[in-house]
Amino acid sequence: MIIIVFGLPGSGKSFFASRLATLAKGEYLNSDQVRIKLFKKREYTEAEKELVYDVMFERAKKAHEEKSNLVIDATFYKQHLRQRYLDELPGSVSFIEVVAQTKLVKKRLSMARAFSEADYKIYKAIKKEWEPFETKHLTLTSTNDNIGEMLDKAALYLNLGNDK
After folding, report:
1. Is the pLDDT of residue 164 over 50?
2. Distance CA 36, CA 52 (A)
3. Is the dihedral of CA 27, 9, 58, 40 positive or negative?
4. Are strands 93-99 and 2-6 parallel, antiparallel or unpaired?
5. What are the backbone dihedrals phi and psi of residue 27, each rounded to the nearest 5 degrees, phi first?
6. Distance separating alpha carbons of residues 14 and 74, to the nearest angstrom
7. How does pLDDT run across 46-59, given as a tens digit for each residue?
8. Helices 46-66/31-38 angle, 10° precision
9. How far is CA 137 from the centre of its chain?
10. Of 35, 42, 145, 150, which has the fewest beta carbons less than 10 angstroms from its beta carbon?
């Protein structure tokens, strides 16, 4: 199963996605970590972004072939970035969008984070270019104290844990 967790910077998607990967007994793949491995000096050009998304897609194809679980964590703010998965891995991908109130996002982005270099200025720029996702997906609202609820909703949506 391929699970794409997407949303704006500071939404809480990485915190959620890393825990979801554990719950789903799958690999966790984060776009910021991929970018850091690929580029010593990151410039965030379109070509750089396309390469990061290409690497993630190739890993998704491999997970699909191996029938293993993979949680991909990235903004996926443009429709063409999401559409590739729908076109080339039909029926194999589930999408979960993570959103948060702007006030909370601003606070989160003011703090240092392990891999992300996005700040509030980047958040506003990406938000301005955001293309809504019209395909069926789960949308979760992140707060600072609802990770358990988010994981429960995701597990139900993804049909995880039916073997218990």
Report:
1. no
2. 10
3. negative
4. parallel
5. -80, 150
6. 8
7. 888 899 999 999 99
8. 110
9. 13
10. 145
